[in-house]
Amino acid sequence: MRPGRQFPRPHKTMKKILDYINSRRSEIVKLTKTLIEIPTQNPPGEHYEEMVRVIEKKCRAMGLSTKRFITPRAYLRKKGITTGSERINLIADWDLGHKETIHITCHYDVVPATKNWDTHPFKAHINKDKITGRGAEDMKGTLCAAIFAVEAIKALNRKPGANIQLSFCPDEETGGETGFGWLVKNGLVKATAGISEGYSNNFISIGNKGVYWFEVEVIGKSAHGSMPYKGINAFEHAADLAQEFKNLKAKIEKKKSRFMTKDSRDRFPTLMMGGEVLGGCKVNVVPEEVVFSVDRRLIPEETRETARRQVREVIKKFCAKNPRVRIRINEKICNSPCVSESRAPVCRAMASAVKTVTGKDPKFAIMAGATDLRFLMQHGIPCVGYSARGGSRWHSDNEYISIKSIQNTAKIYCLTILSPLL
Ligand SMILES: [Zn+2]
Asked: What is the pTM (predicted TM-score) of this model?
């Protein structure tokens, strides 16, 4: 962001940062443990106040100014949230008077835990380099890394070339609209560039696929099960329609994105049916209505308009063949794919930081799933995603994080923020 600005005595500063973060191992473990042990399960979204209090205290101790923004109840209701904690978004600022601001966003909610864990999901279990607990990898370990990255810069008395703003938000696990999405929508976020969770190791995420979720409602006519000819069987028609969607799926899944993904299978568009299925009421009643969901993911080369048109064409053809059946499409989400330009300063800065810390050549890739960064990328703000890693057990049982990886991520965030490229 300030081309030509020199990194002050690079090797010495860099070494000091790496040493500082190495020296903070026990504090990093302690904070990660505290974060895991506040069970911010979502849904329904609980213990948010307790969580914000901990983060707020830590940010203030580092000399950042903090402010809480509560997502209004009416907005929550509109998005279908009627239970759980107050939705608190915390913003922590380090205003250095620059024109540009690097924004790091973290979500503090976690998905619920099953009963199948070997350890208590909300009691951090520490064994050598591993901390096990719900949210360790998604994303409390990375949240901790972000905090310690800023702490290192403060402690070593360095001045970044841009203002630093951190946000800690709820509800990423339920789509983010009522957390970071709401903050961005209301102009409460300052960002020339954004950083958040994403890939790990030597992979940096610079975007995500588009998400198109809809429900297909198939409406027939009920009748007694012994005289099915008097009704219109919504289930049988839904099965035929599902076959048409399978044909569409075979067609769209042939298209390969030019963007790299960590898993090469993610380079294609996808269509997944039946995540939710509803219908029928009794064994001897012809089902009047069947509803099934469709989860369609778009590669950056596709547009929402194309995806919607493909669906409309399938329905139109089906209805022409089956005039007695009614079909309704209820759209739930339709987000465009987002990709940041890999030449953007923040992308180059992080690539150089990853190389320094891991010693490996960094690779830019897009993710199959979306993160909160999409709310910034939708406005054309360049963003990078990078996470501390464990066993890639995001949302699964026995989720854990490597302490070494939290430290490396803190180093990478720190070097990125201080990069002369910014
Ligand atoms: Zn996450």
From this structure: 0.90
